[in-house]
Amino acid sequence: MTTITSAARPRPGRALTYVLVIAIALAIAVPVAWVLLASLKGKSEFYGSPWTLPEGLHLQNYVDAFVTARMGHYFLTSVLVTVLGLVFVVAVSVPAAYVVARYEFRGRGLVEVALLAGLFVNVNYIVVPIFLMLVGWDRALVDVFPGGFFIDNPAVLSLVYAATSIPFTVYLLAAYFRSIPVDFEEAAALDGASRFQIMTRVMLPMARPALTTVLLFNFLAYWNDYIIALTLLPGEGKTLQVGLLNLMTAQKAAADYGRLYAGMVIVIVPVLIFYALIQRRLIEGMASGGVKG
Q1: Phi and psi at residue 55, in whole multiples of 5°?
Q2: Both 29 and 82 in a single domain?
Q3: Quick one: the chain helix, strand, coil %, rounded to 5?
Q4: Is 36 helix (H, G, I), strand (E, B) or coil?
Q5: Is residue 202 packed enough to be buried (19+ CB in 10 Å), middle (13-18) or exposed (0-12)?
Q6: Same domain flag for 38 and 170
Q7: pLDDT over threshold 70, residue 276
Q8: How many domains does the chain have?
Q9: Helix 257-292 with 240-254: angle, nearest 10 deg
Q10: Is the dihedral of CA 81, 87, 91, 97 positive or negative?
Q11: What pLDDT sits at residue 290?
Q12: Is 4 domain-assigned?
């Protein structure tokens, strides 16, 4: 009599999981593909069925979005703000996380509690106090900077992004540093390495999966932000998200939807490219975190 092992038995739960994953993937991929195709259509094509393929490649939509709608200028501003924000947060969070994970000092517990509490603060709720604080600093320095310095400054916006994301970044990196055995640091110290060299040449390369994770999450937060950028950059130097909303309002009135969807593609593509570049490291970080936790 043949017996069926547990490995050979059908698993309805696994089949259901595959169905859900495929459904979620389609729910994400179909709208993205639809926006991409719509960005290549001419004006007259939008009055027919929305599911028809474009009759030609109307690349003029992208030219109009980049030049006429100034999406190219907004794109450069977003890149500058995002890159600076990532540099600031990594430069501060990596040493801070290493100190919290490896050093014993007075008030360490209080610092960890403060970092944990910072995870629950939604920056969108405190954007008005931040704005008023920066306006007050501009008023205090009006003799030095008559045109203002803190408001409508992309570098200051990057600092705000980095400061508000430090709790999450330090908390995650510190947890990963703690999972690394101390033996590696002791071996490096015996070879004459300083604390800074141990952190940068030993700990940081081993923490690449965790560093990749925080880079991705912070990149998405900075790139997709709208409220803080709208509040702190009220002038012409808008970020891509704010410029996209302005484009959306203008193109709805002009019925030029091709240019609008081209602007959406300009916003989406950098995120997809960034994720494609680091997705392997991100999966490694999730896998190692699951094993070590």
Answers
A1: -70, -25
A2: no
A3: 75, 0, 25
A4: helix
A5: middle
A6: no
A7: yes
A8: 2
A9: 150
A10: positive
A11: 42
A12: no
